[in-house]
Amino acid sequence: MIGVSIATKWEYEATLNYFDVKDHERASYPYGDYFTRMFDDVELIFYSTGVRKANGVGGNQYMMSRFNLTKVIVAGTCAGIDDTFSNLDILVPHRAVQYDCTVKEVEPLIKQSFVVEIALANYGNDYLTGTIATADRAVVMWKDYLELKEHEITIADTEAGAIAYICKKNDVECIIIKGISDFPTDEGHDDPGDSNAEQINVYLANTPKVMAKIFDEYLLRFI
Q1: What is the pLDDT of residues 87-142, one digit of tens each?
Q2: Which pLDDT score, from 0 to 100, does residue 201 have?
Q3: CA-CA distances (angstroms) from residue 154 to 2, 84, 183, 188?
Q4: Which among 65, 50, 74, 92 is positioned nearest to 171, based on CA atoms?
Q5: Distance CA 104, CA 157 (A)
Q6: Buried b (16+ CB within 10 A) or exposed e, 90-120
Q7: Cα separation, 165 vs 56, whole angstroms
Q8: What whole-number distance in Å separates Cα of residue 70 and Cα of residue 170?
Q9: What pTM does this model have?
Q10: Per-residue pLDDT tens over the stretch 136-159
Q11: 153 near 115, Cβ under 8 Å?
Q12: Closest CA to 95 of 119, 122, 127, 118
């Protein structure tokens, strides 16, 4: 069985709508709920985990242990960092890092021990790729965006790097498929709350589009 890990409630709601999931098809577990679908004779289990690293790791460890998953696909949205990409671009990262695991004032922002290289050779090369960076702190403030940009990060989120890390510990293949829902904006002299609200509105509008694009064009290929 292959797991499809989905973090936010908006991503999961878009998934339920896409697959026309009925209430009786959903089952609960400690981190949210899940449902199953068949793709080319392979059973997929789609599950919500909740946001941030603790939920992402906990939910995935639970699912790997309970259902003996052979692969985890992390599907969802992300913030764009590399501005050569655009909103709604879908990326399949070849590297996942965590950037909130060090004292950055005296250590490197990214330690090699928290870097996961993702093998993608079996899936061809005609897709966008790069490095995804994960931290419990979402990339909202402009200074956080600039810091990640300086470290050649492509996209950022709050769970994928940690999930890739725990999958590696369990010897389970992990594929990350993320669509850019928004880019941080320079709050400058604006009220940071207003700037954040504007970014959230863009995220909410783009989330269903990202999820549909992942399921339409990428999911079957990476099963």
Answers
A1: 999 999 999 999 999 888 889 899 999 999 999 999 999 999 999 999 999 888 88
A2: 82
A3: 26, 9, 11, 23
A4: 65
A5: 19
A6: bbbbbbbbbbbbeeeeeeebbeeebebebeb
A7: 11
A8: 10
A9: 0.94
A10: 998 888 899 999 999 999 999 999
A11: no
A12: 118
Alpha-carbon distance of 53 to 180, in angstroms, equals: 19
Q: Are 178 and 88 a contacting pair, CB within 8 Å?
A: no
| Among the listed residues 20, 79, 83, 13, the one whose alpha carbon sits nearest the alpha carbon of residue 48 | 13
Token pair in block for residue 60: 């995935």
Q: Are strands 95-98 and 42-48 parallel, antiparallel or unpaired?
A: unpaired
Cβ(109)–Cβ(146) under 8 Å? no
- Token pair 């209430």 is found at 23
pLDDT at 196: 62
